[in-house]
């Protein structure tokens, strides 16, 4: 039996928003057959230039905290590295060394230990909610707590409820915003990517940080396409997030999200590979063939058929109600552009039949339109 000429993600279009390791994620997805479009959603403020971080660091050295919470490994390591560049690393670790230290997960724990700061406790789940419960149950009223945050701005934090609940429990909270970010520049590739999501030109969009989600939503608002973007993410463009913290801004807006069990880049790529065909592919038995409709191609009996954008729009419209007759005017409205001549539909159907290799897959219903010649044993619609 010959090997198939397609990979698990053949025919699927994935948008990548990562600022870091975007090339690595893109390569992982492309190796699995996906068509990848990448544009960084954010730009980072260089740590040596971050005067706000330096001011907070000096303040903690002068008034050491009672409790330190490390949320990310890269963020904590970056903080120590920045302090070292300012000649403050020894003073900072000395100030933190007398505090109770809680880590959100194994990467943060590793960064703490590398700095000579052993953690008091860390949840196996890597959940900020468990960290909160642990501290509140032990009593934190009046305590001075430093929370290392990753990917914040001056007016946006990735864990707003977490910080609010610490304050509600009586703590004095000092957010340490490491790796602050700005949205990507206007009128560039990122704008095109955001508009592409709103126009449903992708089957999925990957997010590896909550700031990237925030940046996409902010840019959609600036472009006045927020409603269209959210409608796309709630229906045909699937949000694939590296973990629950990243997904949270979307969940609040009623956007379905999907994430791997492990919050790792490789796990996200595998998750997209496993889940996207289940979410997007439409499989039907038509005219004795197994037809699988993907984002940019059709598989007929396991063989990839290259189909034009007009052909893909046509077959998706026909497959929306498999076997039902779709009028020429309805098909015309589904075609790219804003044509008014139904002759364009006849041309699209003719070319679609040629691409699929069997003219019987799409049936003509005289004076009514076209339909997929669906077999009685419909597999999946």
From TrEMBL:
Keywords: DNA-binding, Lyase
E.C. number(s) listed in UniProt: 4.2.1.75
Principal EC category: lyase
Domain of life: Bacteria
Domain OmpR/PhoB-type: 281-374
A molecular function GO annotation: uroporphyrinogen-III synthase activity
Organism: Mycolicibacterium gadium (Mycobacterium gadium)
Name the UniProt record assigns to this protein: Uroporphyrinogen-III synthase
């Amino acid at each position: 039996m010959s090997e198939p000429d397609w990979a698990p993600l053949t025919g699927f279009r994935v948008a990548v928003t990562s600022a870091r390791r975007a090339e690595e994620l893109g390569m992982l997805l492309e190796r699995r057959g996906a068509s990848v479009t990448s544009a960084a959603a954010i730009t980072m403020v260089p740590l040596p230039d971050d005067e706000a971080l330096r001011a907070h660091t000096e303040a903690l050295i002068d008034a050491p905290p009672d409790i330190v919470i490390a949320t990310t490994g890269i963020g904590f390591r970056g903080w120590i590295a920045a302090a070292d560049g300012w000649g403050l690393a020894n003073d900072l670790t000395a100030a933190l060394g007398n505090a109770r230290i809680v880590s959100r997960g194994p990467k943060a724990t590793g960064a703490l230990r590398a700095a000579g700061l052993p953690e008091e406790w860390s949840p196996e789940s890597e959940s900020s909610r468990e960290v909160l419960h642990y501290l509140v149950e032990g009593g934190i009223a009046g305590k001075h707590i430093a929370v290392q945050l990753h990917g914040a701005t001056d007016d946006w934090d990735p864990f707003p409820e977490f910080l609010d609940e610490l304050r509600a429990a009586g703590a004095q909270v000092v957010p340490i915003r490491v790796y602050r970010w700005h949205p990507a520049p206007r009128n560039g590739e990122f704008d095109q990517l955001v508009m592409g999501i709103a126009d449903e030109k992708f089957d999925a969009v990957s997010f590896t940080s909550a700031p990237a989600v925030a940046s996409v939503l902010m840019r959609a608002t600036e472009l006045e396409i927020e409603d269209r973007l959210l409608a796309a993410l709630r229906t045909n463009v699937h949000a694939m997030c590296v973990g629950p913290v990243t997904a949270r801004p979307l969940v609040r807006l009623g956007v379905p999200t999907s994430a791997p069990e492990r919050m790792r880049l490789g796990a996200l790529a595998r998750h997209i590979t496993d889940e996207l065909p289940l979410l997007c592919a439409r499989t039907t038995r038509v005219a004795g063939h197994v037809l699988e409709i993907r984002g940019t191609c059709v598989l007929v009996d396991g063989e990839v058929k290259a189909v034009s954008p007009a052909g893909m729009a046509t077959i998706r419209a026909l497959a929306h109600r498999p076997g039902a007759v779709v009028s020429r005017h309805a098909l015309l409205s589904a075609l790219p552009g804003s044509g008014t001549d139904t002759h364009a539909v006849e041309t699209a159907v003719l070319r679609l039949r040629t691409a699929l290799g069997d003219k019987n897959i799409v049936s003509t219903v005289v004076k009514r339109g076209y339909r997929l010649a669906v077999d009685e044993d419909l597999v999946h619609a």
